[in-house]
């Protein structure tokens, strides 16, 4: 980013007015001085910089790279076998690799510091993640790399015990762990909570806010498109909406079975629902945190979140007063949190009375918050890596 210094001085050069040779000599000197400055800056950059290679072996890697880092990937085709991108950030040069062709031992390791993005959702994924960890461990042992951090799509009930032995604090080699959901072991020292983000495995895009997204009247008060499990709070939600005829004011499309793969039409429908409604209802699933929260933020539709802990080993509310969704709450997410869907009719009554102007202000606040949230996560990620990987100046 030093090209702006290469301009040949600010004064306009007028061939009729100055002695041409003097001018050329002077501009040559300026050019050389600039060249020196660039060389110095580059060498200075190299002295202080880290090279970090991110191996994206889980879809949340795309949220990290494209949504949080605002990075690009070549080729753009989402089904390409191999995709890569790079950018400078802080004192660090980051490169990102992803795709089915990124296989242990079959690509060049071009940095001494590696971030592994892994899926630890279920046993089959864990077995695959473990292979990657063993590959990284071998590289550490043969001094090919110096540091390893892991970004982990954790288990929805926070059963992540399998990763613990790999952490440095437990005698392993992984310096840092960034993990999704309210994992009870998050300590802000070497284990950090990481946002679930949008469903990149369904190719949810990076959405650029538009004028109409902010200013247009939206056709629906709220939306819920999703699976309704038997005996779940989602059944209660649908019943409450039907009781008061509120389902007529909202875009509701409930299905009884979860579908992992979207059709183009169902995905288009879902995006339209987010864009066309002021509120997005977010009932709990296996975990309180879901992709829908972040997807709604992308389109300026305010998440209404069922704020209850789900069964499992995620941070219990008694010890963590802000769990669940500790990360979002700590960051001041401007959402509506409710404990029970019975609170919904009153919320929707209030919505009906809101002016478009008030809604525009709320959308602005939400979209700004989401931009800031991603920027903050990026900065925190970079700082954490630099503090851990760069040699400290403390002698």
Automatic annotation (TrEMBL):
Pfam families for this protein: RXYLT1_C (PF24785), RXYLT1_N (PF24786)
This protein's name: RXLT1 xylosyltransferase
The keyword Transit peptide is annotated on this UniProt entry: no
Highest rank taxon of the organism: Eukaryota
GO molecular function term, any single one: ribitol beta-1,4-xylosyltransferase activity
Alphabetical list of InterPro entries matching this protein: RXYLT1-like, RXYLT1_C, RXYLT1_N
Keywords, ordered alphabetically: Transferase
Domain RXYLT1 C-terminal: 201-390
Listed GO biological process terms: protein O-linked glycosylation via mannose
Name of the gene this protein is made from: Rxylt1
The RXYLT1 N-terminal domain, residue ranges: 52-195
Protein species of origin: Rhodinocichla rosea
GO-annotated cellular components: Golgi apparatus
């Amino acid at each position: 980013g030093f090209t702006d210094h290469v301009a040949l001085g600010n004064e306009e050069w007028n061939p009729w007015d100055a002695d041409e040779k003097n001018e050329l000599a002077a501009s040559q000197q300026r050019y050389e001085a600039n060249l020196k400055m660039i060389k110095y800056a580059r060498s200075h950059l190299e002295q202080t910089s880290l090279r970090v290679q991110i191996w994206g072996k889980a879809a949340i890697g795309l949220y990290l790279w494209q949504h949080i880092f605002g990075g690009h990937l070549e080729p753009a085709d989402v089904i390409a076998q191999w995709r890569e991108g790079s950018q400078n950030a802080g004192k660090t040069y980051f490169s990102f690799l992803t795709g089915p062709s990124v296989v242990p031992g079959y690509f060049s390791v071009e940095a001494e510091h590696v971030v592994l993005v892994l899926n630890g959702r279920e046993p089959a994924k864990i077995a695959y993640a473990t292979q990657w960890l063993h590959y990284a461990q071998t590289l550490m042992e043969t001094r090919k790399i110096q540091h390893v951090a892991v970004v982990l799509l954790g288990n929805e009930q926070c059963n992540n015990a399998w990763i613990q032995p790999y952490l440095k604090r437990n005698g392993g080699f992984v310096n840092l762990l960034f993990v999704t959901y309210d994992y009870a072991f998050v300590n802000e020292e070497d284990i950090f909570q990481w946002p679930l983000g949008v469903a990149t495995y369904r190719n949810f895009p990076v959405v650029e806010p538009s004028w109409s997204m902010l200013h247009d009247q939206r056709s629906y008060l709220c939306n819920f498109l999703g699976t309704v499990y038997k005996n779940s709070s989602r059944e209660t939600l649908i019943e409450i909406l039907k009781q008061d005829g509120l389902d007529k004011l909202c875009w509701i499309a409930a299905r009884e079975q979860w579908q992992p793969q979207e059709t183009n039409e169902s995905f288009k429908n879902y995006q339209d629902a987010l864009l066309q409604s002021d509120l997005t209802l977010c009932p709990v699933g296996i975990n309180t945190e879901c992709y829908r929260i972040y997807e709604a933020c992308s389109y300026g539709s305010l998440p209404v979140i069922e704020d209850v802990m789900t069964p499992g080993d995620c941070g219990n509310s008694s010890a963590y007063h802000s769990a669940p969704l500790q990360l979002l709450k700590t960051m001041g997410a401007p959402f509506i949190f409710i404990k029970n869907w019975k609170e919904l009719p009153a919320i929707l009554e209030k919505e009906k009375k809101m002016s478009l102007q008030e809604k525009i202000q709320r959308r602005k606040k939400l979209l700004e918050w989401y931009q800031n949230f991603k920027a903050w996560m990026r900065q925190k990620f970079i700082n954490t890596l630099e503090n851990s990987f760069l040699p400290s100046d403390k002698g």
